[in-house]
Structures are given as structure tokens and as C-alpha cells.
Amino acid sequence: MDCNRGAAGVAVLFVVATLAACGAGGGGDGSTAAQSTDNSTAAPPPDNVAGFAYVANNGSNDVSAYTIDATTGALSEVAGSPFAAGAELRSVAVDPSGKFAYVSSRWDILAYTINATTGALSEIAGSPFDSGTFDPDRIIVHPSGKFVYAVSNGLMSVFAYTINAATGALTPVGEFAAARNPNTIAVDPSGKFAYVTSAGTDIASAYSINATTGALTLVGGFAANAPIGITVDPSGKFAYVIIPNGVSAYSIDAITGALSLVPGSPFVAGTSPRSVTVDPSGKFAYVTNQTSNDVSAYTINATTGALTSVGAFAAGTLPLSVTVDPSGKFAYVANTQSANVSAYTINTTTGALSEIAGSPFDTRAGPASVTTTRKIQ
């Protein structure tokens, strides 16, 4: 790590603290949603096919790209990485096909094609695309690969775009009102519903999605305590919402998209939880805790959606974003202050995490969001 990285880290901490104070997501969840809120809903690749990982670096204004070792989960930086991006990156997402990557910056949305062999990024013609807004935050790709959604904390809106299937370029669909201080967004695997958390009004909003245009129609708002992160499990039955020091679970009405609180909620997490993801099997959930510097792991009751703690596993300093790779074998956490990514193998029986040899892997300054993708076959 170069000697200038430390000063950049201090600046990043100020930015992250400001985002947390206003209820804006740091791009994790989920996603990174990961999603992730940052995970693809496409079928997992064969175990012998390596994928790629991408990290949006808030402090150095670039994207780090890595190849994932299919056997060990270790990360190797892609030639040409990091790739230049906009100022103060917030979130990174990849379309389900693994062809395109999208990054939200302080003012714009950047779009890239992914080299299917190397994982290298090339900026798409027309990028960056003006978000038409101040402060686009969490960005996600619809499971169909047809639409992109970006939350604007500044304008209290969700902006929708269509994706050109050939080029990856974005065309605006429209701006859709959200409650005060929206910060994260998730879409259910069927692609019928979107969910937005708004810490400013203590609600999670549900929207129906027009399958042709991508337009959003508000279904309703559902009580949540200062929510700052959300994901939907792969079955589409449950949503998990980060609240102060815990996780609330909701069952999803398959017809209307309405949310109903799961008995036993909220479930205890570490200190200052920030991001949540569910593995592709739907058996386990993971939460980053930015003050206790660890990851809470849970098993998921397939019938009720209730969470049972597996334990807390050490991460780096100020972990913001967590994702599980499409194979379900590995988990990755972006540690903003320590400027690295913690990598873990997942015990497929218990959900417990074991840190991978060589972890943590260096990033640039202030990694705020991490996502993974399968390799195109």
C-alpha cells in the first residue's frame, strides 16, 4: 500500500460517516447487494469455472477487478486493474449475464463491458450516463438483465433505465418518488417487485415493476426502524432489512409484494450493521457490522424466514459490503477503512465462514461495494 493511501482513508471515513448520518447506503449490499443486493440470480456455474469480483473504491475513484480462483476463492487482480471511474463511488453491480458492469458515482452512472476471458472493464460509449440527480447511491440490475435502478438520496427518488442488450448502454425510463432518505434497493428474483429502504421515514417501500418498461408503481410502505440495507432471498419469499443493531425479516406476498414482519424480528446482529446478503441456496444470510468489524452469519428457516445465529466472524476495519459468489462457495467483504477485501469459504452445511489463505486482499482507497459474477460460458 502506498504512503498516500492513509490520508485518503481519513477522507473516506468522513464521506462514509456522512452517508451513514443521512441514511444513505455505502453501496454494500449488497452489494452489493447484493445483490445484493450485489448477487446475480442466474444459475451457479460449474465448480471448475472461475468468476470475477469487482470493488468500487470510494476514496480512489476507481474499480478494482479480480479473478476468483474456483477452487480456493482467492482473488488475483486483473491486468489493467484498477479501472478509472467517477468521483466518490458508491456501488457496483453486474448484469445476470456477466456482460456488463454498472457503477454509481457522486454524480453519474458509469457502464462497462466485461471481457469474458480476463474480466477487464472497458467503458461503454456514452458512459457516464447522467443520473439526472444529485447523489445516486445503491445501484442494482433487474434479474432479467433489462433494467437498472439507482436510488437517489438527494432527490428522494429511484431512477430507472433500460439496458441495451447489445451494447449495455442505458436509456432513462423515469424518476419514481421514494420516501425521505432512501438508501438501498433490492428486486425479488421473479423481477415483479422492488423494495427501497428509507431511514428518514422508518419505512421500507414496495413497488411493482412493469415487466415491459421497467417502470415502478408504489404498492405501499411497511414499518422498519431506520432501515439502511435490504436484500431478498433467492426464493422470493423473504426480505431482510438492516436496522440499528439487528435484522428484521419479512415475508413477501407473492401476489401483491406486500411485506409482513416475521415473528421473532428483529434478529440481533453486531454493532452498526450495514449490509446484508443471502447465499444462492437461500440457506444462509450474512451481515456486515461496521463498528464491531465482523460479519454475522445466520441460517434461514425455509418455512418462516426466521434467522438463527451461526456466529460472528472477524473482518477488516469498517466492513460495509458483503456478497456471496454465484457458486455459493465463497463470501467477500469490502473493508472501507483497511482498504481491502476479506474472503471466506462457506461451510455449506452450517454457513460458518473460514478466511481464505491470502485474505484480506488489497484494494485501492475506501472500498465501499463488492460484487461477484460468474464467467460467461
Calculate Rg over CA atoms: 18 Å
CATH superfamily assignment? Answer: YVTN repeat-like/Quinoprotein amine dehydrogenase
Major β-sheet, in short? Answer: 5 strands, antiparallel
Poorly predicted tracts of residues: 1-48
CATH topology label? Methylamine Dehydrogenase, Chain H
Total of helices: 1
CATH architecture: 7 Propeller
Number of domains: 1
- Distance between the first and last residues' Cα: 35 Å
Q: What overall form do the CA principal axes indicate? A: globular
- What is the tally of beta strands? 32
Q: Mean pLDDT, nearest integer?
A: 87
Structural class: mainly beta
Strand fraction equals: over 45%
The helix content is under 10%
CATH class: Mainly Beta
What does this structure look like?
This protein is mainly beta. The chain has one domain: YVTN repeat-like/Quinoprotein amine dehydrogenase (Methylamine Dehydrogenase, Chain H, 7 Propeller), CATH 2.130.10. 5% of the residues lie in helices and 46% in strands. It contains one helix and 32 strands. It has one helix spanning 5-21; strands at residues 52-57, 62-68, 75-77, 83-84, 91-94, 100-104, 108-114, 121-123, 129-130, 136-141, 147-152, 157-163, 170-177, 182-187, 193-198, 203-209, 216-223, 229-232, 238-243, 246-252, 259-261, 267-268, 273-278, 284-289, 294-300, 307-314, 319-324, 330-335, 340-346, 353-355, 361-362, 367-373. It is globular, with a radius of gyration of 18 Å. The model is unreliable at 1-48 (pLDDT under 50).
